[in-house]
Design goal:
By secondary structure, this protein is mainly α. It is built from two helices and two strands, in the order E-E-H-H. The termini are far apart.
């Protein structure tokens, strides 16, 4: 009935029409077509942690974790640079406003000066 050294002692099975039986080694896996077969190093996490099937290979998880940490580091660096630029911007705005006030004071001083010496003393 079967090729090779397979013997069916007191066991019987049948396959649906058009299907064939198979001999499997101890580590072989059988998965139906809609099922997902995974290796023995697969780690299960909560379904919200991974894709819709609820599992992910540990090596893939480590790769994603590494990539996430790299992107998170870049984001933290950009955020720190933004904070520094925001401080510099505030300092420049204050300096600009101080210069405008000084310009206004000098202009008023020059306008009301009655001699060249008084105008020169405005600076």
């Amino acid at each position: 009935m079967f090729a090779g050294d397979v013997f069916a002692y007191d066991t019987a099975f049948s396959c649906p029409y058009g299907k064939e039986g198979a001999c499997l080694a101890p580590d072989d896996m059988i998965c139906s077509s809609p099922a997902k077969c995974v290796s023995s190093d697969t780690v299960c996490f909560d379904s919200n942690t991974c894709d819709s099937s609820g599992f992910i290979c540990n090596s893939q998880y480590k790769t994603l974790e590494t990539e996430y940490n790299e992107v998170a580091g870049i984001c933290r660096t950009i955020a720190a640079e933004f904070d520094d630029l925001e401080i510099k911007h505030g300092d420049l705005v204050n300096e600009h406003n101080d210069l405008l006030r000084r310009q206004k004071i000098i202009k008023i001083c020059v306008v009301y000066a009655s001699t060249i010496e008084e105008a020169q003393s405005c600076y």
